[in-house]
Amino acid sequence: MDLRLAPETAYKNASQIARVSTEKWALDNFYCASCGAGLAQYPDNTPLYDFHSPECQEKFQLKASKRQFGSSVLDSEYSTALEGILKDAYPSLILLRYDATRWVVSDLELIHRACLTTSCLKRRKPLSATARRAGWEGCIISLSSVPALGRIGIVRNGNIRPKRAILEQWKQSNRLLETEPQARGWVADVLACVEKLYSTFTLENVYSFEKDLATKHPKNLHVRAKIRQQLQVLRDLGLVEFVSPGVYRRL
Fold first, then answer.
1. Burial 152-179 (b: 16+ CB within 10 A, else e)
2. Mean pLDDT, range 135-161, rounded to an integer
3. Exposed, middle or buried by CB within 10 Å (0-12, 13-18, 19+), for 59?
4. pLDDT of 92-145, one tens digit each?
5. Under DSSP, is residue 105 helix (H, G, I), strand (E, B) or coil?
6. Rounded CA gap, 206 and 242, in Å?
7. CB atoms within 10 A of CB 76
8. How many Å is the Cα radius of gyration of the chain?
9. Any alpha helices (H) in 131-201, and if so which ranges?
10. Taking 70 as the threshold, does the pLDDT of residue 212 lie above it?
11. Domains in the chain, please, with CATH?
C-alpha cells in the first residue's frame, strides 16, 4: 500500500483536488475488507455509494479530511441514510485523513456497515425557508456510538496494519449481520457497553449503562429485560459466553 497521494492538477479548488486525489488513491491502493479484491468506482453523484468490490459486491463510501475525525462525521440526507440502514443497504465507511502538506495518507479507518445502526444516525436541523434547498434535512453519523468491533484501523500515523488482520476483524464484525437491521441498533449498543467493561463482567455491570441505553431507546420501557435479551443474542453470535449465572466473558 503506497500512502502517497497524487494531487490532481486539473482542478484549482482545494476541496475538489482533495476529493479526486483521495478517490484515485482508494482505487489504486485500497481493497475490499470482505474479499480482499480491489475496488471499482461508482459514477459521480451515486447516492450513498462511492466504491464496490466487483468480486463480492460489498459497498463503501469514502469520507476524506485533512483534520482528525472526531466523535461524528457529516453524512447525506437523513431519510436516504435511514432508509439505507433499515434496508441493510447502507455502505461501510472509509475514513481517510490526509496530510495536505506532504500529500500522504496519515490515517485510514473502516467502519463496518453492520455497526452503522439507527442509533448512530442523528438528524440535523432542516435548512431554513430562505435556503436554496429549503427544508432539506441532513444527518451526522455518531462514531462514538459504533462498537470497537466495527472500527477497523488500517493506517495509524503512517503505520500500515497487515491485510490479514483487517480481513479477520471484518469477518468478526460480519456476525452482527445475522441480526435484522431493525434490531441491530440494540445489539450494537449493548455490545459497545460490554466493550467498556473487563473481559469478564457481570449482569450488574451492564445494568450500569441502563440510563444511557434508555436515552438512546426512549420508546423501550423495559431496558433491563432488553439488556438480558441482547446478551443472549451476543452469546448466540459468538461474541460473549455465559460463565455462570449473571457472569459473562467477552470473546
1. bbbbeeeeeeeeeebbebbebbbbbeeb
2. 95
3. buried
4. 999 999 999 999 999 999 999 999 999 999 999 988 888 888 889 999 999 999
5. strand
6. 14
7. 14
8. 19
9. 163-173, 181-195
10. yes
11. 1-174 (3.40.210.30), 179-251 (1.10.10.10)
